[in-house]
Q: What sequence folds into this?
């Protein structure tokens, strides 16, 4: 009897819970937890459809009874009444049980799948390490260092700064050249011939610094009409001449063609003369600096104290005031250093026109300077020697890692039983 009463009470409680669930989702906008899978949502939707299908099989009296029982589930007075103890027919209860059983079976399958997916792969790190084979090799890079260009830039910049201090515009003597192409047909050919003759006349009184340009102009001839030609010219000089041409062209109102030509050739001559004069001065200073470093002499047995004493002995010949005596303590310290330090005698950084940097580039793009050398062969040799040591170091690291891995595997093998027990316990805990 008690069992029969429980059978009648069970669907009522389940229906009450289901009714409360659907009521709460409809009223509160219930949103399932982010941890629930998409499959669980699909199964819940299927259960909802099955439940409403089962509900439609009930008579209106049964539906009204179940609704009233669900609404008064927590009413003590109602629970003591005979109406609360009434139930739907046994076949309806059995069909509802099948709906619930279907839902629980689906949920159990989903739970098993989720547990299986959450089980970690304990060997994932080792598998990943075995799959990755990274290229740690180095690439060689030989970079040319134009020391004469560095010196030219330094002296030219100093000249321009000095001119700026005097509120003047210093000539830019950059020697970089570009190829300029000229059309040479019809009227263009006539203008080219005319301009070349005017340039030769303008260069008749050119300063000595432009002698090379003057000689080049004398040898140059315009090709036959219809044959275009190209000339290599200093880019900075051409840019300045273009700017002057624009300034002269802006003054064409009220001036004749001959007056404009005269203005142009006068300004152009000044620009060309200033450019080559400054360029010659800079070049002279460049050669003078190299000559200074090349004048260094061997001084076996001499110290820096001896050099300072020689300088102090020469100073009175070039000064109007007496020279202060040298500090004895300083001379004692300088006497400990040789006059010429090993490796610095006539150092190539001061004497060479071009040098070559030897660099190593790793697989991440980082560059490492291996040294600066006087020719490419030495730079390549330095990389080969350094790379050989690098590759050997890499092999040593791999060998050490292999030995370490073997040691770790041996230790794990000894403790494999413990590891298996821990894994089994973790897997059982997730069931």
A:
């Amino acid at each position: 009897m008690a069992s029969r009463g429980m059978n009648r009470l069970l669907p009522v409680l389940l229906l009450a819970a289901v009714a409360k669930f659907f009521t709460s989702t409809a009223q509160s906008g219930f949103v399932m937890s982010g941890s629930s899978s998409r499959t669980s949502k699909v199964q819940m939707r299927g259960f909802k459809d099955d439940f409403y299908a089962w509900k439609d099989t009930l008579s209106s009296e049964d539906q009204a009874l179940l609704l009233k029982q669900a609404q008064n589930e927590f009413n003590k007075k109602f629970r003591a009444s005979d109406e609360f103890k009434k139930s739907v027919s046994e076949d309806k209860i059995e069909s509802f049980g099948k709906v619930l059983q279907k839902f629980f079976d689906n949920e159990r399958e989903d739970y098993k799948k989720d547990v299986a997916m959450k089980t970690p792969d304990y060997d994932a790190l080792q598998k990943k390490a075995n799959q990755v084979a990274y290229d740690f090799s180095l690439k060689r890079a030989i970079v040319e260092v134009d020391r004469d260009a560095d010196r030219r830039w330094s002296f030219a910049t100093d000249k321009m700064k000095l001119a700026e201090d005097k509120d003047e515009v210093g000539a830019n003597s950059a020697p970089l050249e570009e190829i300029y192409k000229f059309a040479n047909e019809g009227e263009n050919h006539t203008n080219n011939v005319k301009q070349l003759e005017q340039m030769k006349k303008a260069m008749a009184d050119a300063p000595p610094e432009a002698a090379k340009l003057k000689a080049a102009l004398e040898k140059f001839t315009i090709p036959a009409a219809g044959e275009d030609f190209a000339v290599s010219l200093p880019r900075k000089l051409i840019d300045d001449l273009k700017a002057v041409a624009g300034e002269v062209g802006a003054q064409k109102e009220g001036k004749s063609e001959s007056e404009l030509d005269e203005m142009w050739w006068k300004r152009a001559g000044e620009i060309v003369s200033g450019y080559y004069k400054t360029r010659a001065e800079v070049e002279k200073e460049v050669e003078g600096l190299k000559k200074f470093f090349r004048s260094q002499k061997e001084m076996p047995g001499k110290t820096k104290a001896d050099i300072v004493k020689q300088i102090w002995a020469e100073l009175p010949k070039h000064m109007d005031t007496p020279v202060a005596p040298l500090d004895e303590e300083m001379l004692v310290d300088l006497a400990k250093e040789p006059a010429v330090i090993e490796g610095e005698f006539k150092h190539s950084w001061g004497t060479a026109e071009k040098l070559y940097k030897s660099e190593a580039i790793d697989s991440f793009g980082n560059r490492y300077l291996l040294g600066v050398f006087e020719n490419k062969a030495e730079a390549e040799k330095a990389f080969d020697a350094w790379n050989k040591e690098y590759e050997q170091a890499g092999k040593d690291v791999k060998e050490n890692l292999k030995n370490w891995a073997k040691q770790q595997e041996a230790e794990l093998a000894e403790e494999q039983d413990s590891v298996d027990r821990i894994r089994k316990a973790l897997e059982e805990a997730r069931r």
About this structure: The chain has three domains: 2-118, 148-294, 300-342. The two ends are 37 Å apart (CA to CA). Residues 2-118 form one domain. The chain has a mean pLDDT of 80.
